[in-house]
Amino acid sequence: xxxxxxxxxxxxxxxxxxxxxxxxxxxxxxxxxxxxxxxxxxxxxxxxxxxxxxxxxxxxxxxxxxxxxxxxxxxxxxxxxxxxxxxxxxxxxxxxxxxxxxxxxxxxxxxxxxxxxxxxxxxxxxxxxxxxxxxxxxxxxxxxxxxxxxxxxxxxxxxxxxxxxxxxxxxxxxxxxxxxxxxxxxxxxxxxxxxxxxxxxxxxxxxxxxxxxxxxxxxxxxxxxxxxxxxxxxxxxxxxxxxxxxxxxxxxxxxxxxxxxxxxxxxxxxxxxxxxxxxxxxxxxxxxxxxxxxxxxxxxxxxxxxxxxxxxxxxxxxxxxxxxxx
Length: 326
Known about the structure:
Elements: H1 2-5, H2 40-45, E1 54-60, H3 66-79, E2 84-90, H4 97-102, E3 125-133, E4 136-137, H5 139-146, H6 149-154, E5 161-168, H7 177-189, E6 192-193, E7 219-221, H8 231-240, E8 272-273, H9 275-281, E9 303-304, E10 310-313, E11 320-323
Parallel strand pairs: 1-2, 1-3, 3-5, 5-6, 5-7
Antiparallel strand pairs: 3-4, 8-9, 10-11
């Protein structure tokens, strides 16, 4: 997708079978057998493949540069995480040049490309940034979401984690509601909203200066347009771009789940369990199997209780973890 993202290659038609009597297919080759009796084809096909860096798209609209400033600092945070790379994109402008001139809006940074809706499918996670208009996202960003109809129809974005960052003119101008009202866009696509919460720490509680941002995401106060983001606001944006789990995240190598840890039987369809809680608390979590909520406050993702292969996206790390149960 876009810069460095690439597109998923389409399936190409197989070439016609050659008339050459010398076959070059694998069927004509002897299949080496390992000591354990398994052939190479079977064993290698089950080996996990290591993908390239995870791609986090920072997609924003910025009229006067305040949201763009947060986006650039956020990219620094994402790029600072090993195995993750950020790509910045802007959505298309809907106002004419004449109107933008009258509004004294600066020219857009040509170094940041515009994104199309179809390109979103290539992201592993997305951070959307936009200014507020009466407590909701600006029309330019809404127009972009409105252009994702085909993706919605095919549910191509389902399961992708996403977050928000915003800009408002006043302290009561919508730092929270602008992000809150945008959650509906993610919901209809089946996307996962990943808020910041209060993980920014002491910076969330400072009262000695004006500071944008909320548990919903980073933010900046623009005032009449002349105010620039302060260091706290920029650091908040960088923090949002940096996965910072408060607990150790389980991996396939670190955690092994068995059937007796998973709710089964008649209650299996009603129960859920939390991978993070299992990892932290171990099997003594069994007493909470039939609860439909998780006692681990930092976890936002639940997996229906069932035996079999489970695939999920963990919050904050935005990494897909696949685990097979014995």
